[in-house]
Amino acid sequence: MADDGGAKNIQESVRVAEGKTSAEFVVAIQPQSGNYRDIDLIAAATLTAAAMLFAFFGPVVVNPDFVPLNLLVVFGLVWLASSKIPHIRRWLTSEERRKGQVKREAGALFLQYGVSQTRGRTGIMILVSQLENRIEVMADSGILRVVENESWSQLMNEIQGGFDPDDLPATAVVSVEMLGDFLKDQLPVEPDDEDELTNVPVITE
User: Fold this and answer.
1) Do residues 101 and 154 both lie within one domain?
2) SS3 of 139, please?
3) SS3 of 194, please?
4) 66-98 per-residue burial string, b: 16 or more CB within 10 A, e: under 16
5) H-helix or E-strand containing 31?
6) Same domain, 198 and 148
7) Cα torsion through 165, 167, 170, 176, rounded to 10
8) Where are the beta strands (DSSP E) in 54-171?
């Protein structure tokens, strides 16, 4: 997911960005957002049903005594494969669902790590979620008051376009840098600015 070097690079990028703007950044990297156990169940049940139909109606004669055990094996293997291989879950879910789960997870982290508690309401949660290939940026009201909606939306699209599935820490660093450069003129550092939130990234293996 991220080695010590990657975590330090993220921490340094947050320090540099917060030297340009009064925004406060918290970065999280996760293997996935929420759970997809229902998808694992649907995949296992569907392929098990297909295997059962093949056993009873297919061209190959199958000893009925072994069918229950074989079906259990199929169910277990498919369940395991779906739960362990991100590509399967990604293929079996809609983009809308993946986006929704990342957004909800970012909202939960936003509250959990006190991003909404900064003095000027200038906190930003950046969540990099691997399975969904998504970056969710959740900004507090002090940020959204000073940015122009169209420019902010364009920035979000550019940040998402920079997602690198092979280097999640680098993805987070680039996201922080882009946000810092974007906000430095609209939300400059105040003379009495304080570092209110942790710069250490929250990385879940």
Assistant:
1) yes
2) strand
3) coil
4) eeeeebeebbeebbeebbeebebbbeebeeeeb
5) none
6) yes
7) 30
8) 123-129, 134-139
Beta carbons of 163 and 134 less than 8 angstroms apart: yes
The mean predicted confidence, pLDDT, of the chain is 92
CB atoms within 10 A of CB 197: 20
> Phi/psi of residue 118, each to 5°?
-70, 155
CATH number at residue 133: 3.10.310.50
Q: What is the pTM of this model?
A: 0.87
138 shares a domain with 53 = no
Number of domains in the chain: 2
In this predicted model, what pLDDT tens digit does every residue of 137-155 receive, in sequence order?
999 999 999 999 999 999 9
Q: Are residues 42 and 143 in the same domain?
A: no
What pLDDT, in 10s, does the model give residues 32-41?
Answer: 998 899 999 9
For position 29, what pLDDT does the model report? Answer: 97
Residues 165 and 171: their CA atoms lie apart, in Å, by: 8
Residue type, position 125, single letter = M
- Residue 23: give the domain boundaries: 4-34+94-203
Whether residue 102 sits in one domain with residue 86: no
**Do 176 and 10 meet the contact criterion of CB atoms below 8 Å apart?**
yes
Q: What is the H or E stretch that residue 157 is in?
A: helix 149-161
Question: Do 98 and 164 reside in the same domain of the chain?
Answer: yes
Q: What are the C-alpha distances in Å from 87 to residues 40, 42, 74, 114, 133?
A: 12, 15, 19, 33, 11
